[in-house]
Specification:
It is built from eight helices and no strands. The chain has 224 residues and is mainly α. InterPro entries: Peptidase_PrsW_arch/bac (IPR023596), PrsW (IPR026898).
């Protein structure tokens, strides 16, 4: 069991470390990141409970509504809610790149618990594929979410509300696309490869943009 749990958590911690080390201008407190990761892990259980009740009650007669639209929306909403309530106004959310880190942390906390539960049910043989697909995709959904949270907090163009909405809608649309591809049959499932390449390109583009915003923010505040 220890091996399964380690295999389930390791990809999430590795990806979070990657985005943490990408920030060369300032160092975010590790304790706050760990707390955010734990928040993401905790929300796994109410999400699973809501999904279970919805399935048992037959809330959605169409599997696409249940497995794609509802699942994507509720997962991203809980992540968004955690950052909005617990992190956005935190004193240590003090530069635009922090959004990337906190978005990735809450998403990877959720993805890690989900991954552990999946591996406990289906075995370690699926660990590599899950690290490449579900775990990394959640990380990138979180990166995009966090980017727009950073824009909302530090933007000076009076579009704070617009960016807050994009912090929810952008990852939901990406998650919807990911889940939709998973439902495809036959050769259409191979659309996952170009989608993941796009997702990595898009996520890393947001990382670079956040880093530029960070440099500008430090310059304007006479910190560099």
């Amino acid at each position: 069991m220890f091996i399964l749990i380690s295999a389930g958590i390791a990809p999430g911690l590795a990806l979070l470390s990657y985005f943490y080390l990408r920030n060369q201008m300032s160092t975010e407190p590790r304790r706050t990141l760990l707390h955010t990761f734990i928040y993401g892990a905790i929300i796994t259980f109410p999400i699973m409970f809501i999904q279970y009740v919805s399935e048992e009650e037959g809330t959605f007669s169409n599997p696409f509504l249940s497995d794609v639209i509802f699942a994507s929306s509720i997962e991203e909403f809980f992540k968004w809610f955690v950052i909005f309530v617990a992190i956005l106004r935190h004193v240590e959310f003090d530069d635009p790149y922090d959004g990337i880190l906190y978005g990735a942390a809450v998403s990877l906390g959720f993805a890690s618990v989900e991954n552990v539960l999946y591996l406990l049910s289906f075995g370690i043989d699926t660990a590599f594929l899950r690290a490449i697909l579900p775990v990394s995709s959640h990380a990138l959904f979180g990166v995009v979410m966090g980017y727009y949270f950073g824009k909302s907090k530090f933007s000076k163009d009076n579009k704070q509300l617009e960016y807050l909405i994009l912090a929810f809608l952008a990852p939901v649309l990406l998650h919807l696309s990911y889940n939709t591809i998973l439902t495809l049959k036959g050769h259409l499932i191979y659309l996952m490869l170009p989608f993941m390449l796009f997702l990595w390109w898009f996520g890393l583009r947001k990382v670079k943009q956040a880093h530029r915003h960070l440099v500008q923010h430090l310059y304007e505040n006479n910190k560099i």
